[in-house]
Design goal:
Layout (H helix, E strand, L loop, with lengths): L4 E2 L20 H13 L4 E3 L9 E5 L13 E23 L2 E19 L5 E7 H14 L10 H15 L9 E2 L5
Parallel strand pairs: 1-7
Antiparallel strand pairs: 2-3, 3-4, 4-5, 5-6
The protein binds nickel (II) ion (NI).
The site of nickel (II) ion (NI) has 5 residues, from α2.
Length: 184
């Protein structure tokens, strides 16, 4: 099942998402999230972006031809917990399926150490760096109620105000189905 993607302005994107009870069968939901993300050509999707305030996100960088590093990077992260972030900050132009057609430079640390469960409730603790770390940091922010535009300067934010207001109203061009909070 393909879910509509929740747009900027919806309160669900601003909530700290809840832990998932251990052992919950998430197979269908995770399959649906992958389908939804692929349909929208995304490389990451967090549960709040389909209206579910739970601590789950998925990543899939395997289709990015110019990122050979990500060729095996397809995973679900359940009840993740970032333990540590290290290294120098580097900037990269990020986008978000919930904030279509806006891309801005965001600074993030180089490596991330994270604990999480996979879809079979196996526990992992791993370190990721570079683009993998960045995707994880971006998606992890979603389950903390944070968005990449929060990192921008006040001036940049002011410049985006009109576009963001339009996104909240659903007044934005996308090739995927959206759910906008202020759509009339
Ligand atoms: Ni995002």
């Amino acid at each position: 099942m393909i879910y509509p993607i929740v747009m900027y302005g919806d309160a669900v994107l601003r909530k700290r998402a809840a832990d998932i009870e251990k052992g919950t069968d998430l197979a269908q939901l995770i399959a649906d999230m992958f389908e939804t993300m692929h349909e929208a050509n995304g490389i990451g999707l967090a549960a709040p972006q389909i209206g579910k305030s739970i601590r789950l996100f998925i990543v899939d960088g395997t289709t990015l031809e110019d990122e050979p590093d990500l060729k095996d990077f397809k995973k679900a992260f359940i009840n993740p917990q970032i333990i540590d972030e290290q290294g120098e900050e580097w900037e990269f132009e990020e986008g978000c399926l919930s904030i279509p057609n806006i891309r801005e430079e965001v600074w993030r640390k180089e490596t991330v150490r994270i604990k999480y469960f996979d879809e079979n409730w196996n526990a992992f603790e791993e370190e990721f760096d570079g683009m993998k770390a960045r995707i994880i940091q971006h998606e992890y922010d979603h389950i903390e109620g944070k968005l990449f535009i929060d990192y921008l300067s006040p001036l940049k934010k002011r410049m985006l105000k009109g576009k963001l207001a339009n996104i909240s109203k659903g007044d934005v061009d996308t090739e995927y189905r959206i759910a906008a909070p202020l759509k009339k």
